[in-house]
Amino acid sequence: MKKVILLILIATVVFSCKKNETTTPDKQQAEVAFNVTTILPDAGRWDYDVPECDPTAVAVTAKFKLAEQEGPDNGYFMVDVFYTNDSLYSKVLKMDLTECDDDGDGCCTFTVEEFYLLDATGKEIKAMPTSDSEFFEFVSNPEVLTFEVCAFKKTQVYIDVLCFEEHLYDLFGFFWFNITEITVREMCFFGDICISYFDYPFTYWQDVDNLYQGQTNGIQADMPAIFTLKVYKWDNDIGDWGLNPRVWNNEYYPNQDLWLGENDPLCIRYADYDFATDEYMIEVYVYGPYDGFMYPLVATGVWYFTDNAQSLDLNQDGVVDFVLGICNEDPEYEFPATVPGK
Fold first, then answer.
1. Within this chain, do residues 60 and 146 fall inside the same structural domain, yes or no?
2. pTM for the complete prediction?
3. N or C: which end of the chain has fewer CB within 10 A?
């Protein structure tokens, strides 16, 4: 089973204030509570490793820093957190709005700089990625980094966080509030392309400029496939697959070193919400000669999975293998060397 990493989608921050009915308060105060959810990310084959969550680690305290207000603990605010009905919440924290309410409307605007979750020993076990970090791609609600709080009103804010390791500090940023738990997962894919099943002779592959000529052994009857995967997630709001799929390709490694499908599989990463059913669909585009070399769609309606793509790995070796044409024995998946619909 693939390593999973607990991410946290910090879901809701509730701000509420209580007004004294008999006396006039000296300070305008808002009461803040955080509702937390967790997300799990996949580990990717990148210049860094996505940190793995410790399944025994339990968050008991939230620690956060605001750009506009000094916290009482070395600049930070601290508040206890607790689980109920699979959601993580914080106890109420009072925010002083007196100094920041310059125009007297009873409201202040804050920007979150850092957020951590701490265990009972005070160890930081989860943190939110900053906007310039490698992990920010998993943040679902970046617009809530800056928010307004008003006295005697309730406000909700949604934020995301990941499992935290000190040596990966530069990959993180920080947050607080209503937290949703997510698992970032990984699944790897490797393909073969069999040129004998195309309507183009061997000499065509050799003479017409194409990416396969750049592979280590050049043009062969059976070559590692150069391909693109588009990963769609079902969107309940529109009743269809999401309009913005994640796209993965094995021409170049993420650091732009030449890859061309050789040696390493193509590994996708996706966020699986722990307390929700997530449905995914993958389309396969394989580079080949179709009136010129291009990436046509060669497989759709084949790879569907719910929550964990491990179900696609039929032999459970950690890599989903496919072949375009027929040039090896017992592939996990065999696609025809033709474009669907033609």
1. yes
2. 0.53
3. C
Q: Residue 34 corresponds to which amino acid?
A: F
Same domain, 170 and 194: no
Are 285 and 278 in contact by the 8 Å Cβ rule? The answer is no
CB count, 10 Å around CB of 53?
A: 25
Residues 6+ apart with CB under 8 A from 34: 10, 12, 13, 14, 62, 79, 81, 88, 89, 90, 176, 177, 178, 179
| E strand spans, 154-207 | 159-163, 180-194
Whether 69 and 18 share a structural domain = yes
Residue keyed to tokens 């310039």? 132
Strand (E) positions, 195-265?
222-224, 227-235, 240-241, 246-249
Q: Is residue 117 part of a domain?
A: yes
| pLDDT at residue 249, rounded to an integer | 97
Q: What is the total count of domains within the chain?
A: 2
Domain ranges, residue 192: 187-268+275-335
pLDDT in tens, 261-306: 999 999 998 888 777 888 999 999 999 998 789 999 988 888 999 9
